[in-house]
């Protein structure tokens, strides 16, 4: 294409953009049709149960467990948004900032809040639109630029200028981007089950199997219907994500208790609680690919090989974008929900990485 005259290059770029958006919306329509058929099947089999929802007015006790830390709030001056987080460990200790994935919230880091508070001020955040954090109503408020700036502003509002940054799933995506855009704020980066964003965008277009696993990215482009599908059969989809044989934590993992499941159901069954989280995905295709790629701080990537949503091949490819010490550990029996599935192993791996020399060169 470099040899093409400018009009030809513009035409080629326009054709690629057209094909890209045709793929996005075509696949979105296909996913919607499949979801619609499942809904009709559910109505035909059990019409009474399809639209049944339990009333959940009070949070389960585990969400107020004092051993996990203190519930706190911070209001960001520029955006005006109030963020909720749970903090453990003494103020003044080095900051460890934890970013959850979808469909999760601060509670997904309960094992890490207990583990690392001895040496860190551990902060598990509810991302924009999640849980008790404010949820702007327009999807434009969930662009990646906004989500990245949130983390920078929260860091500064907490009185820190740097942190150990840990992200899982969608929180891993945000963690990668914060590390790329604000490298001076991240001393060490730890990501759980999410590749470098450039790897993800390139891989998904070349591997139909990953395109199928990422179908929810496309389905979420639709208004209101994805939120509705989550509520069917009293949030059966949400429960099955963590418990089913296909996507949930396996028999050898630390399975979620009934109270843990109820905690997720309580948070996401509140009025409008699903729209903010799904809005995170409704801008993704207009924000990628990235202009800047390199990560310059020591990086640990942890991966559950039984991840039903992310192919493990992306983990190794991520290495080329990290221009510092890079450590990859793949756990063969672990699921996508790695820090909940194998908390003891994950915590040990994180401790080992944190105690390594930061001057060590990339392997």
Automatic annotation (TrEMBL):
Organism taxonomic ancestry: Eukaryota, Metazoa, Chordata, Craniata, Vertebrata
GO MF annotations in UniProt: epoxide hydrolase activity
AB hydrolase-1 domain sequence ranges: 94-339
Matches recorded under InterPro entries: AB_hydrolase_1 (IPR000073), AB_hydrolase_fold (IPR029058), Epox_hydrolase-like (IPR000639)
Keywords of this entry: Hydrolase, Membrane, Transmembrane, Transmembrane helix
The protein, known as: Epoxide hydrolase 4
Family, similarity comment: Belongs to the AB hydrolase superfamily. Epoxide hydrolase family.
TM stretches of this protein: 18-41
The species this protein was found in: Anser cygnoides (Swan goose)
Pfam families, per database record: Abhydrolase_1
